[in-house]
Amino acid sequence: MLSCREVTVLCSQSLDEPLGLAQRWRLRCHLMMCAGCTNFRHQLELLRNAAHDYAHGAGTHFRAERGDPGIDGAAVRRDRPASGMRPHWPCIDLRPRYKVYSPSELP
Amino acid sequence: MTAVTDRPAASADENAFAAEIVALRRDMLRFAKLQLRSAEAAEDMVQDAIAAALRGARSFAGRSSLKTWVFAILRNRIVDHIRQEAKVIPLSTLEQEEVEWEDRVDALFDANGAWSEAARPAAWPRPEERLQQQQFWRVFEARLEHLPANTARVFMMREFLGFDAQEICDRLGITSGNFHVIVHRARLRLRDCGCATAWNSTGVVREACHAELQGSHRTVLAIAG
């Protein structure tokens, strides 16, 4: 049985590389029983989305309060992935929300 | 940039476009400074990105918001800069950050590795609204600024600039084990920005944020669980 401390390490690692089958399985077993770690995983997903938004120009001057729809409509709801995606691990919703420019397209 | 705005033939449209780009300067500068940790280098890079945006105005074509496009140009410059200049992280500075950090992690868990009562993560209430609040981004930026230098560098290369783990390891001369430990640390510190802002009205967290700005993370880790 993994400890919460070990689970936080694996949750983080899963954002950077695919985990092995055994690790995924042990993680799921722990997460099914542990609300703290489930929240932690969700926090990491949101942090990744936040960092992504920030790197695309969201931030202190994000003008949501003026009814601005957000940069490229990024303010649309996208908290938890659809429930159908939940059982898989990892299930972070990382669809690009901004126009992706390849370096050759940029001046 | 003045070369474009002052050109007599510049149409009103072109001038408006240039003004919009220049208006983004402050945000760009903040973003660049976080990553380059040198005001001067950040200034140069932003200037360069703005000049490129003004020169390449025709290639913009409105396929995204202007800000997304300009930030893509800026990120691209920062990536190039890192690819050219990235220096190997000396092992000694890594170890130093490690020692500082271990105590903080220990405080999050009990002896069996379970969450300690105070540190157990809570859900971000209404996360999507969070990301649209200025308060959230202030806490986010303040915490980024207080990450140890190497930790911040690795985190931002990964999450802002989209380097993959292998390239980061190669460029900075760290092992994949080092890499995972470093980004994990950064995420542990940044993960509850959303909770802190949600609680802001209680005053408790206002104090916590204040403590954070003073560089005292321990208080926040203890309160924000």
Written as H for each helix and E for each strand, in order along the chain, the element string of chain A is HHH
* H-E string of chain B: HHHHHHHHHHHHHH
Rg of chain A over CA atoms, rounded to whole Å, is 17 Å
Assembly state of the chains shown: heterodimer
Largest sheet of chain B, described in full?
none
| Rg of chain B, alpha carbons | 20 Å
Largest Cβ-defined interface:
A-B, 52 and 66 residues
What is the averaged pLDDT score of chain A? 73
Structure classification of chain A: mainly alpha
- Unreliable stretches of chain A (pLDDT < 50, length at least 5) are 62-93
Task: Enumerate how many helices of chain A there are, as a single number.
Answer: 3
Per the principal axes of the C-alpha atoms, what is the gross shape of chain B?
A: globular
| Count of discrete alpha- or pi-helical segments spanning 4 or more residues of chain B | 14
Would you mind describing this structure in some detail?
The complex is a heterodimer of chains A (107) and B (225). With 107 residues, chain A is an all-alpha fold. Helices cover 41% and strands 0% of the residues of chain A. Chain A is built from three helices and no strands. Chain A has helices spanning 4-13, 21-33, 35-55. In chain A, helix 1 (4-13) runs parallel beside helix 3 (35-55). Chain B has 14 helices and no strands. The radius of gyration of chain B is 20 Å and the shape is globular. Chain B has 225 residues and is mostly helical. Chains A and B meet through helix 1 and helix 3 of A and helix 3, helix 4, helix 5, helix 7 and helix 8 of B.
